[in-house]
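Re: that backbone. Tokens:
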């Protein structure tokens, strides 16, 4: 049973956590996904790029590897994440701000990328228009989000178990936009981008053992973590035990796949 109301987890509200907590929960996926997204966007040396919704900086770090710190900027509404991104990426201009109101001049960048962001923005169309505005003509915009319907194994497993015991559990697949193939491409077309391409990016994440998997939810990170910590002790124990069973009761390390839908477009 739950003892508190489940937080809405809209926008940045469920990500006001430490960068270490985020890394345990999602960082093990977002780092390899950053490589795949940058590849899909064709990011290469001498370009300038903005990481929209940078979090602790997984994509920012990948962009710095390719472009150098002086050619990379980043922005996120979470102050703890902005501080972490600055610490991890010295020399990068990292600011607190929202995707819907980017504080940059028109045509400031060659590229704007948003990794795992569109699920949580208040106005996705405004965010897409802003990304288009701050990229110069001929530049690229790219974004990706998890396939919440089944391709993101960790989250799909969690919500399947949660909803089996609590029909009111806020399954992200039912409440989040852009978790289906083609939705980001449609957004980009509405924003006036051309040469829009979409598809899937697939990565894997490793866990030392089941406790490594389970404790990530106890940090309260993201909608799943927020829901987990809203449960009473009995509810969390039931959730934990069923998750362990559905994973095959692993007694050592294991890996889980994750698929994200992406799209790119030209200004």
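Recovered sequence:
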């Amino acid at each position: 049973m739950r003892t508190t109301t489940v937080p809405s987890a809209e926008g940045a509200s469920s990500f006001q956590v430490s960068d270490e907590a985020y890394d345990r929960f999602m960082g093990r996926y977002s780092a390899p996904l950053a490589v795949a997204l940058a590849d899909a966007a064709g990011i290469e040396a001498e370009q300038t790029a903005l990481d929209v919704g940078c979090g602790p900086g997984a994509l920012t770090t990948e962009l710095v590897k390719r472009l150098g710190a002086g050619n990379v900027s980043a922005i996120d509404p979470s102050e703890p994440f902005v501080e972490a991104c600055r610490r991890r990426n010295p020399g990068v201009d990292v600011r607190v701000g929202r995707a819907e109101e980017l504080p940059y001049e028109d045509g400031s960048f060659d590229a704007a990328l948003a990794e795992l962001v569109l699920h949580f923005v208040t106005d996705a169309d405004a965010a897409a228009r802003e990304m288009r505005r701050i990229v110069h003509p001929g530049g690229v915009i790219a974004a990706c989000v998890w396939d919440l319907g089944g391709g993101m194994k960790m989250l799909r497993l969690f919500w399947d178990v949660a909803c089996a015991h609590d029909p009111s559990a806020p399954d992200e697949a039912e409440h989040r936009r852009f978790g289906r193939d083609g939705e980001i491409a449609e957004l980009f077309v509405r924003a006036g981008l051309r040469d829009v391409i979409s598809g899937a990016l697939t990565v894997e994440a490793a866990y030392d053992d089941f406790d490594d998997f389970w404790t990530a939810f106890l940090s309260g990170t993201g909608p799943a973590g927020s829901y987990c910590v809203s449960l009473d002790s009995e509810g969390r124990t039931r959730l934990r035990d069923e998750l362990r069973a559905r994973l095959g009761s692993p007694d050592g390390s294991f890996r889980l796949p994750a698929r994200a839908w992406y799209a790119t477009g030209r200004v």
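The first helix runs from residue 19 to 41. The chain has a mean pLDDT of 92.
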